[in-house]
Structure prediction request, 794 residues.
Amino acid sequence: MKNKPALKALVFFGAGLVAGRFFDPPVAVVLFVSTVPAALAFACWYADKRPALLSISLAAALALAGLVRYELVTSYFSPDHISHFMNHDGIVAVRGIVAGYPERRLEKVNFTLSAHEIYFKERVWPTHGKILISLVELDTLFEYGDELVVRGKLRQPKDRRNPGEFDYREFLLAQGIHGSVMIYHAAQIKKLSSNNGSWFLREVVFPSKNYLEKFIRNNLPAQEAALLSGLLIGERGEIPVELRGAFAKLGVIHILAVSGMHVGFIMIIFMGVMGFLRLPPWLRVALTILALMFYAHVTNLKPPVVRASIMGGLLLFGTLLERKTNVYNTLALAALFILILNPLELFQAGFQLSFSAVFSIVYFYPKLRGLKTIADLLARIQGRAVLRYPLELALVSAAAFLGTLPFTLMYFNRLPNFALAANLVVIPLAFLGLANGLVAAVFNLIMPALAKLYLAASWFFLHTLIHFVEWASALPFAQIAMYRFSLGLGVGYFMLLVLIFNFNFAAARRWLIIFVLCLANYFVWQGAGRNSNELTVTFLDVGQGDAALIRFPNGKKMLIDGGPRGRHADAGAWVIAPYLQREGIHEIDALVLSHTDADHLGGFPFLMRNFKVREVWDNGVMKDTQLCREYLGLIDSLNITRRVLRAGAVVDDFSPVKIFVLHPTENFLKQNPANVNEASLSLKLSYGEIDFIFMGDVETAGEQAIPKFGDLLASEVLKVSHHGSRTSSSEQILNLVRPQLAAISVGELNKFEHPHDEVLARLRFLNSRVLRTDRHSAILLKSDGKTVEVVNWK
Prediction:
């Protein structure tokens, strides 16, 4: 790292940020401790002695500075901060200023509100901080600088609710957003004034962005307009989900996210136009740097654009001074600038992908270009630009692909097989579409007739890009799903890559042999420490519904209930399937349906279509609904074995675990034909000395039928019936079960006000530990047959 001071500072400051993520020390203590290395570093520098001690002290001071910076952003909020007013049961009113450009989505418009006052608990409180406002299908639009009063329920954004899920709360927190309010009616929002905020943003940046957005929307078909908005100004919310999926599947989703590539496009366009106008070099550089600053603000200062703009500006300035800049140091300087302003960016996928792509291009591109076969080929086609430029583009794409692959696997769970080849087509088409669209927007102000020609060209390139991506993404083997790639594997991948690319050095060859041997040992012994006698039960957070995955010691898997399915969400597709895939589960031995209400059956159809299901179990009681007909139709069409179970049955298929059916009996179904809740299929799982009871949505009548099993009901774990409703979990049944742990699957702030206080009181009386998915997220339990423990997965 010689002569790279910014890179050194980044490494130690970043280490402090990582430490802050995993530890939570008091800020005051860390500040006090940090004065020691800081003072020591100053003393060494002032005395011009002990350079080694100076380096160590500086490193420690930078790491502690990173730790303090992280803690200040995530843990320290003043008493009047907006984060203290979240999740109040009633309606609040917030007065504030629209702090950003409203972003259009397919069914709503989002914007941030910088809060100034809040009406909370019958009192007006001064406050500060940002919240996200979502206008759902409203025609009323607002602009940056508008002062508004917003009425609604102020909610903390959802965090990671199940292992491996995307953390939406952390994503918004990285943007300085701490809460959200949904606006469904115009009466919930009132405009007080306009023309607040930054003059530069209000009068220059956002009017320009608004002009570009309207020009694009009014002059291009919907898909092409949405794509150009994403390419040019970073507004991709209106790109159809199917089209975004096609870009992702092909491995070219980076085109839709404004990044260094788009900044490069802007630099090429501006430098080309100003070169055509014969402007002097200093003026070209100055105007291009101003254009980059303007573009960064147009794209809402997204970190990849800020990084690329800083790097581009420094490189251009270096060429003007005729001084060679160190690219690694410049890259580190851009990263430091972003992380000092917002340390949470370090943990965002966009930041990691952006910087890894550029670092990889800088490091791997020269090495790829220096490979003998490629170097010879480049020498032969030196004067033939038509052949050389595609090869150079392929090498750049390959370098970026190598560096971003681990992050692509970790965040998108896919290995795109055609990404390198696709980039040779996608990047030129995207550039030509963006360039012609930008030129058309400029000429529309002075020569509208000429603008139409460029607009037609832009449409052609964008239209061709869309059809190419849709066609290529539909090819067989366009991607391979990979859900088990970890951070540790990513570190190992980079180590292996560096050793391979430095194979010509003897030290690298020696370390490569050691690394391969260590890797072989890891794969041989990775399963040796696992407890094959372990039973795990995961109560997934599917909102107001039930879904529990059971993994048996013999390797088999069972899913009890499939969560809800509604107009906008399917728990099977959005929660359960991704979790199964992340866990490497492709086959389900038994889908168990407690009863046919939509909050239990909803996710099953998707799972039955997309996973190999060996058996389904249910109580045989079907409602006359489309969902039930779909369920039965899939059983038939997919040739899935169906078991209809009755109380008293014992299932030994999952040995050493025994499964006892507690409810319903045939006689009970005859006496209670209409109530599907009461007829819920109820099971007891016994593994050694540990028992689990799953009771579906059984209520009063069903619970009165179950006590006939007497002492057999005693269990360590109870899945509380009917989400903890008042009509369930009677004293009689709880006194027989006497659970140590009571798991309640329930939606956060649900309209039914589950679980009921009386149920919670009865469980507390028995000294049962209550775990709720609305408060604790997914509940993960594991047992060796002698004890059961709660696993802290967050």
The longest helix spans residues 385-412.
